[in-house]
Amino acid sequence: MSQLNLEDSALLAKMKRELNKTKNRLQEVEEKLEEDDSISERLKELIDQNAKIANVEVSSESIKFELSDDRKISIPIWWSWQLEEAEPKTRQNYILSEDESRVIWPELNEEISVTGILTGDPAPRPEDDSE
């Protein structure tokens, strides 16, 4: 077994210190992410508990929501790629959830929630695997 010379030993010690610093920083970042997720979830809960959907109007360009607290919000139809691509008749075939927190299009397996409307959360399009 060979002995480490002084230079190699110092380099290893320095690398170990840097690795420990990196591990500590990673742990700090993970804790911050958990905290951010917790704040985000609490905000969504606050939004959900107060706003209900009172009325919905769907056109080829937008979806307009009237909420129980008298707010009126309009989102572009492209927020839901499924609605954007659907026939006009299918767009009009929606129901409100029992708690009035979501609009559901059963034929499309699509729904838009109050939380999604108020937090600006459009539906992601699926990846195109044809390339």
Describe the fold and architecture.
The chain is an alpha+beta fold. The chain has two domains: 50 residues; 68 residues, NE0471 N-terminal domain-like. Helix content is 46%, strand content 21%. The chain has four helices and six strands; from the N terminus they run αβββααβββα. The protein has a three-stranded antiparallel sheet with strand order 1-2-3. It has a three-stranded antiparallel sheet with strand order 4-5-6. A hairpin with a 3-residue loop joins strand 1 and strand 2. The longest helix is centred in the first third of the chain and has 45 residues. The model has no long low-confidence stretch (mean pLDDT 84).
Q: Tags for this entry?
A:
elongated, 21% strand, NE0471 N-terminal domain-like, single chain, alpha+beta, 3-stranded antiparallel beta sheet, 4 helices, 131 residues
